[in-house]
Amino acid sequence: MRNTFLQSDSTTHLSVEVIWLLRSCQFGFGYSVTGECRSLLYEVLFEITSMLSSSEVVVQPSLPIQILQIFVAMLVMDTWQYFVHRYMHQNKFLYKHVHSQHHRLVVPYAIGALYNHPLEGLLLDTFGGVFSFLISGMTARTAVIFFCFAVVKTVDDHCGLWLPGNIFHLLFQNNTAYHDIHHQLQGTKFNYSQPFFPIWDKLLGTYMPYNLVKRPEGGFEARPIKDFKDK
């Protein structure tokens, strides 16, 4: 059964949900972006979304369609973030003046997921979120769910903890250990993929396999496979 909601006045339900979308971007992907750029981008997104609403009735798609849209958004975000992230490592100027700020986290921790340079926050995260939203065709209501999920996943990827029963570790190969390798000195040119799937790393030869090694003092350590590391 599809969910339908109507405009009631100049502040439409669509507008309200877009505002919630922008708020989720602001506190998630746009966390470190300067206020002026962020506000301008969100205003543009609001105008585009408003133009796409050609009638007074906004129909929330069926659940299977929403799941498909979220999956498409995941692929779009992964694609955008892989190539922008990789380029920030390959371009010496961008790495030195922009992306290296995030790699001060040799040992990642949860809220460090969003610790980055303002320009990186804009290019990597905010634009990636915008493209995911527009290309997938999802409604603002679905987008709020997607962005909240993506933020939680990103935070978990940087938490540095391998907890039993963690659903992200069960469902995603791109997880805490996977991204921990990227933050290690020998892994900075590998495992660029984030936040969902390792597809691009495996297709383009930047995947670094690893083992989880149990430490005597407790817990696990993600270590690159020696034969691969020595190549």
TrEMBL record:
Q: Where in the cell is it found?
A: Membrane
Residue ranges of every copy of the Fatty acid hydroxylase domain listed in the record: 71-206
Transmembrane feature ranges:
63-84, 105-124, 130-152
Q: What is this protein called?
A: Fatty acid hydroxylase domain-containing protein
> GO BP, one example?
lipid biosynthetic process
Q: Does the keyword Transmembrane apply?
A: yes
Q: Which family does it belong to?
A: Belongs to the sterol desaturase family.
Which keywords does this chain's UniProt record carry? Membrane, Transmembrane, Transmembrane helix
Give the matching Pfam families.
Answer: FA_hydroxylase (PF04116)
Q: Which domain of life is it from?
A: Eukaryota
- Gene Ontology molecular function terms on file: iron ion binding; oxidoreductase activity
| Entry keyword annotation includes rRNA-binding | no
A Gene Ontology cellular-component term: membrane
